[in-house]
Every structure is written in C-alpha cells, then in structure tokens.
Amino acid sequence: MYFSRVTISNALTASQELVELQKNGAYASHALLWQLFPGYEDSWSNLKGKAKEQAQRPFLFREEIDSNGLPLFYVLSEQQPVAAHPAFACQTKPYQPRLSAGDRLAFKLRVNPVVSIRDEQGKSRRHDVLMNAKKNADVSGLNSHAAQQKKALAAHQAALGWISDNKRLAEWGIQLESEPELDHDSYYQHQHYQPKGKHTIRYSTVDYQGLLTVVDPERFLQTLAKGVGKAKGFGCGLWLIRRCQG
Fold it and tell me: Which domain of life is it from (predicted)?
C-alpha cells in the first residue's frame, strides 16, 4: 500500500480546476482525488449496492487545510497514485507498518458514526449516533438553554461510547489507553445535494485523537487498510497513526 500527502498547486489553472470541482459540494474532493488513479473510477462506479460496500475501496482519504488555505489530503491506497494532473503535488511512500502486540500509537481518526436501529416493522435503519442521542435525551421540564446543554452532553457521551465499544475495539484489534479527546468543534453535520440526484445527502463527522495499544497486529493492519465506519467517499475512516516515544 501507499501513503500520500497531496497538495493543490496555487497556480491559476489548478485554482480554476478546484473552483470547478467545488461546484459538486461533498463530491468535489472525491472527484479530484480519483484523478490520481486513472482507470479505476469506471470499474468502481459500476458496482452497485452491497457489492460496492463489500469491495475494497481504491483509496481512503482525509482532507485538511494547509497554511495557504488550500486543501491538503492524506491518501492511503493500494495503487501508487499518478499525479499527472497539473493541479497536484503528490508526495508518496510505501505504507508498511510493522506492528507488534503491545505497541503504543497516537492516532487521529475522522468517522461518520452510525448505529442500526430496528423500527416498528422490524426493518433495520441506520441513524446518526449523535443525532439519535440528542433526539432521545429527556429534556422535559428544562428551559431552552438547559435542554441544549443536556442534548450536547448526550451527543458527546454517545460519540465517546461509539469509539469505546469493546466489541468494536476487538474487531479493530486494539484497546484505547484512555478516553480520546473530543471537543465541541470536532463534530460537524454536513448537508449536500447530489450532483445528478434529487435528494439531499446528510451525514455527520466526528474527529477523535488519543492513544491506543495494539492487541492483534494482523487485525489492526486490516483495519488500517479498510478504514472504519461509513461515508468513506466523503473523507472518513482513515487512521493517522504514529509511534509513541518511551
């Protein structure tokens, strides 16, 4: 696998390209990064439903903003990216983490946390973990300010509960050393219109950072490669890890 740091040139042609792509809202970054992997987009786009969910994604990414106010992407991919487009500057290196049980790692993780809940008809539906917690918070008898605080606390606890779930951690092959950091600004709700669709896509993202201990190296390596959670096409699921000193 390959790990890449991808930046956008501040040249005029690149800026024009970026403006044009940003008309697609949430799809802009994904569409831009597909250009690093020519020949793969058509085969991926042709997959439907569960086949698409179960297939190995060509790449995972996380978007941040660099010091010039331009997008900065971290990309994990099976194939080495090809930065043939003039808009890109791409620094790539092989990604081969050597992990052992007991290794301590600092991590950053952006996810779209969801929970499956069965309705009255017994059909399972996905719900935003934080919105579901806010909806179910009992705020009867509270004034508006107190109700907002209680809902915010319920959402915060739900976000921590999602990443701290023992079953989920076992599936990932890790343990958390302590409660990860999760401040108010790390939770975002997104709403975008599909470029060729008629309905609105709504999803949320939560940014975590903290310390973890590797329990099952092989399983965690698989977790790193596949990413976690939903909305990977919108920049979720990629682990950024580094070794702790000492």
Answer: Bacteria
Identify whether 133 is part of a domain.
Answer: no
The tokens for 151 are 């809902």
Asked if residues 202 and 232 have their Cβ atoms less than 8 Å apart, the reply is no
* Category of 148 on φ-ψ map: left (φ > 0), alpha (ψ -120 to 50) or beta: alpha
Number of C-alpha atoms within 13 angstroms, CB side, residue 117?
Answer: 10
Question: d(Cα 89, Cα 9) in Å, to the nearest integer?
Answer: 7
How far apart, in whole angstroms, are the C-alpha atoms of residue 87 and residue 29? 13
Can you say how many angstroms the Cα of residue 77 is from the centroid of all Cα atoms in its chain? Answer: 14
Report if residue 158 sits inside a domain.
no
Instruction: Say yes or no: 80 and 174 in one domain.
Output: no
List, for residues 140-190, the tens digit of each pLDDT value: 888 888 888 888 888 888 888 999 999 999 999 999 998 898 865 677 766
Task: State the amino acid at position 116 in one-letter form.
Answer: S
Same domain for 15 and 89, yes or no, is: yes
- CATH (domain of 42): 3.30.70
34-79 pLDDT, tens digit each? 888 877 655 555 555 555 554 556 899 998 877 777 778 999 998 8
Question: In the listed set 94, 112, 147, which residue is the last one of a domain according to the structure?
Answer: 94
